[in-house]
Write a structure and sequence with these properties.
alpha/beta; FAD/NAD(P)-binding domain; six-stranded antiparallel β-sheet; globular
Length: 470
């Protein structure tokens, strides 16, 4: 007999969203989180939904994949996105949050929910078949549980190396050099910008390449398998003299009025910086600043020495240095149904980065779907699959056994994937203009999700958060 109570293992973004969705459907939840009893190489607190890398959820615009995913999650009153909206900080056209307030709010919301019991222990094994369980332990799953999952699946773990950027004190930058602006003046000036001339840039790059690396400790010592969307800045520097200039240090679209008239071509060519390092606010007052794109595995002493070579950061004080950690994920297309249930056990579901999705909103989307389907299973209902026309549905298709590319070409290796328009099905009519094409994707997604939501509301008998916003 299947127990009605749902167990959620892990209180990151996916686990937090899943637990919230289940509890708001009227089903009791046991939320298991090992922190602070046992921490990870990347976490710094015991709060739920801690953002260990960037504080940005990506573009807000629905003509971008990340923005469309956020919009879809708002349709279903996602706790993660609602909380992110509430604690947003200026970030141009992106959704970035005050990470401390964000995580504390999530922890408080779940701690005060009458149907959520929080258990602070390390989960050492998979619960029995009669317990509906969601694994949302993220890419930093504890070693013991990871081994048990590996035994259960019979498939060796996949992994890649990930890294986080440093955070510096906002009042320690030189504002005579650092200027505030957003690229192409989109939105309010939300980023602090450190300009580098060519000599500054070349010297900085040389020091980055030669900087002493931190030990990978118990991680494998072979050539690191980096996640391409989150490369260490020194690895980007090694790939070419100008690679950083066309990546995180690109100066295009950024201008300081002190340099004169932007529209005077001669003046623009004379004063345009060779490269720019951007700092994004971690809080509304700008007391903490994140070095955008500066994930790193440099030793902490080297980070202080080399990053202080950046004009305007000569006296920068570091609140947090960059760190590298190994992320583990499942070979999900061989293991998961598009409902996020394991093929081998219908009462066991997985969600978040452990499934091979990448990005905060994607983790929330997995938690949303896993929570919905765990609720349906608890009510004796059949689980649902999100429509493929939606960004959520397309992302889940990629990480499940509906992944036709990996199914038809077994030689292809599964790698983590962020939200992307490359995942969604083609439109019936080809549209060459990119903006109009993305708008059509958005409209198609909205129509599909509206139909899906009606079915879901009736299946959950109108006692779920989707129709009753607590």
């Amino acid at each position: 007999m299947i127990e009605k109570e749902v167990i959620v293992i892990g209180a990151g973004l996916a686990g937090t969203e899943a637990a919230w969705q289940v509890a708001n459907s009227g089903i009791p939840v046991k939320l298991v989180e090992m922190r602070p009893l046992k921490s990870t190489p990347a976490h710094h607190t015991s709060e739920f939904g801690e953002l260990v890398c960037s504080n940005s959820f990506g573009s807000l615009s629905s003509d971008r994949a990340a923005g469309l995913l956020q919009k879809e999650l708002r349709v279903f009153n996602s706790l993660i996105v609602q909380t992110a909206d509430k604690f947003a900080v200026p970030a141009g056209g992106a959704l970035a949050v005050d990470r401390s307030k964000f995580s504390k709010a999530l922890t408080e919301a779940l701690s005060n929910h009458p149907l959520i019991e929080i258990i602070r222990i390390e989960q050492l094994d998979l619960p029995s078949k009669d317990k509906i369980t969601i694994i949302a332990t993220g890419p930093l799953t504890s070693d013991e549980l990871a081994r048990k999952i590996q035994v259960f699946t019979g498939i060796n773990e996949c992994h890649f190396f990930d890294a986080a950027s440093p955070i510096i004190c906002g009042d320690t930058i030189d504002k005579e050099i650092v200027f505030k602006a957003s690229r192409y003046d989109k939105g309010e000036p939300a980023y602090f910008n450190c300009p580098l001339n060519k000599n500054d840039y070349i010297h900085f790059r040389n020091e980055l390449i030669g900087g002493a690396q931190a030990s990978l400790k118990d991680f494998e010592k072979e050539s690191a398998n980096f996640f391409e969307a989150c490369l260490p800045i020194e690895e980007i520097a090694r790939r070419g003299v100008d690679t950083m200039r066309y990546g995180p240090l690109k100066s295009i679209g950024l201008w300081n009025p002190k340099w004169g008239d932007l529209f005077d071509r001669e003046n623009r060519l004379k004063n345009r910086p060779h490269a720019i390092v951007q700092l994004r606010m971690e809080d509304l007052k700008g007391k903490l600043l994140n070095m955008v794109g500066f994930q790193t595995n440099l030793k902490w002493s080297e980070q202080k020495r080399i990053f202080r070579m950046i004009p305007g950061l000569e006296k920068a004080e570091f609140v947090r240095f960059g760190v590298m950690h190994r992320n583990t994920f499942l070979e999900s297309p061989k293991l998961l149904l598009p409902t996020l249930q394991f093929i081998k056990r219908e009462t066991l579901l997985a969600a978040g980065q452990i499934t091979g999705t990448e990005g905060y909103a994607a983790a929330a989307a997995g938690g949303l779907l896993a929570g919905i389907n765990a609720s349906l299973l608890s009510k004796g209902e059949n689980p649902l699959t999100f429509p493929g026309e939606s960004m959520i549905g397309s992302l889940i298709s990629f990480i499940s056994n509906k992944n036709e590319i990996l199914s038809n070409q077994k030689k292809n290796k599964f790698q983590p994937m962020p939200a992307s328009f490359g995942l969604v099905p083609e439109l019936n009519k080809r549209i060459k203009d990119k903006r109009l094409r993305y708008k059509a994707y958005q409209e198609r997604s909205t129509e599909a999700l509206n139909r899906f939501k009606k079915i879901l509301d009736s299946r959950l008998k109108k006692d779920h958060l989707l129709v009753k916003n607590n």
